[in-house]
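User: Structure tokens for both sequences below?

Assistant:
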Amino acid sequence: MSPTESERPAGKSATRTGRQRPARRWGKAGYVALFIILALTAVQCIRLGMAGLLVQTAQFEVDRWTPASRTPGVAEISRTAKYLTESLGYTPDNPWALEGVGALDLAKMRASRIPRQAHAAARDAHARFRKALLQRPTSPFLWANLALTKLYLDEIDDELLTALRHADELGPWEPSVQQTTLFVGLAVWRDLDPALRQVLARTVERGASRNANKMFEIVKSYTRFDLICAIEKYQAIAAADCGKAAETAKSAKSAKPAAPTNKGYRQ
């Protein structure tokens, strides 16, 4: 065998070996990258889990107030806010935590006796609901609360009207959404176009099925019995008030207009 022939296999072997070594190096790099990805995923899962646990704990605190239908105390608000703030520390864009903090801002606004502080709390709530909607644009509760904050801020504009529409479209049968949209809608009734007024009328009709008493209380606070008196499901609780409203309207229609006078008139 010639030296040239004996060297060829060695050359081929060396070539193969030289080609395989980079493959081994890339294989190790791939394993390292995979390990890093899995580690980061695990950390993120832990963060999400902790954030979710804190939100649930805060919700448990809120659920303790709701059955009693009372305004929570400062200590209760602070404790719940602590849970939600810690949750946002794990996931700053957590929409459920943002929604919870926004609801607490509204609670602070209602509890405050200082107009400037109340306005600031409403402004904070508005910002949190808007940020949460970036993550959950299909939440009717967020849209309803956004409309509510706009009302408290006395900003009757397209954003408020759009929020009312979205809340109705996304959660037409949700009792809390019905109550909030009705409350806001009646407050800004003059600014509603005919289509949105019809939306509100349908909300009143749907609300009779599951939460007629609360819907009636809202309507009564605005003395808008014309929205419920023709709906049969409200008759059991609204008959007396509807009767009085009808008598008042009849008396006003039959009353003679006062004679014109210039008493006290000044040009």
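Moving on to the next sequence.
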Amino acid sequence: MDASGSGPLTIGGATISGGVAASLTLTGTSAHSNTVSGVMDDGNADRLGLIKDGPGTWVLAAPNTYSGTTTIKAGRLALTGPGYIGENSVWIYEGATFDVSGKTSAYVMNANQFLIGQGTIRGDLAVGGGVWPYYPGPGVMTFEDDLTLDGATLQIMVAGMGGAGHPEGHSQIVLDGGVLNLVNSPPISVDLNFDHDPGLGSRFVFARGYGSLSGECAMEFLIPALNPPASWQTKNKFFRVDRSVPGELALEVWSPMPGSSHLIITDAGPGGAISPIHPFVDNGDSMLFKIKPDPWFDIAGVTVDGAPVGAVTNYLWENVTAPGTIAAAFAAQMVTTPPVAVPKWWLAAHGLTNAMDDVVWEDQDGDGAPAWKEYAAETDPTNRASVLRIIRILANEPIEIGFEPGSTGRTYTLQTATSPTGAWTNVSGQGPRAGAGGPDTMAHTNAPGDRRFYRITVAVP
């Protein structure tokens, strides 16, 4: 869609669906704000993406549902009223603007969405997936208003050299006096480009210009390996966050003095988190650890250096004088009334959060299987086409029965009978076994010559 005329262009009313094309481009040079008020969805496209190009402005005024990437190459892409981008990540090029100031509250990008690239963000923004201020090299991402990182990974590239517009040679987020909110201990991920090995005392400012700061980032850094045989451990070098300069967060490469501080390893199992992550604690000091289960999980137990301390939500480790480990295990909340217990997180992942004890018995998509059977088969309870099915039978020797899906997290058994009403018996050597991770095949060798019926059974290990 090209808005290069003298007046504003408005596209409204109808749903705009993807077809053969995998992306929709909004472009133009008009100085006016052009508006799309129709909902953009995938339609017949596998994943419809949106591209904003050209120096003009396009405003999205509808709650769009397309699932492809939103790419802002130039100009300004704005949201207003109920306007939303799709359910994927946003790539923003240097010089382009992503404007969410037309929303009545902070615009929220969920845990599966990432903000990647360079450029400017206008309006309050909360990110759950990650912020990566680089592409293809270290970049600067500018936020004119408040930024919230809600557990979102902040990916920092350290290249060891400057480039045009990036003299410091590493990624930065820059706030124009806004509030930087760090929620749920967002981790810092360090990408050392060009095999750069920063020396002790190196300091990289990765966030600056904020008017105020709330919360803490995780004391965990996802650091790539150095070229063998060197390693961060053998060189006794670590990254830590330095907040000594007002309005700045920096990564500092440091080495603790022997005995001056101790590393506490945090080991959180699936379904929850421990914060802070892998902190260094000064000798003789104490550290408060917080144990938080994910939604639909409970704390099963916490251990400190292998000794159980109960299913606690907080643990104060006092008088730290040696390295140690704190570990937490989490248990999924289950609906136990059907023949197969169903995790509540699985129901929630498919949007089935109301009256879970009842919904497990319901056939949400009309394919003949209630939700608990869909869980057992690891199919989608909201997609009628997602079913466990036999896809072919080849009357060879051996007889081959193809089926899908064959999930690696389920076990399958081939059964045979002379009548569809049974009695069904297991075919020797054909299960129970784990699925192949997609379409799968089982076989009946030396089958009797009489008429045969076959079925596949599935079980949760």
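User: Anything stand out in the second?

Assistant: Residues 161-167, 230-235 have pLDDT under 50 and may be disordered.
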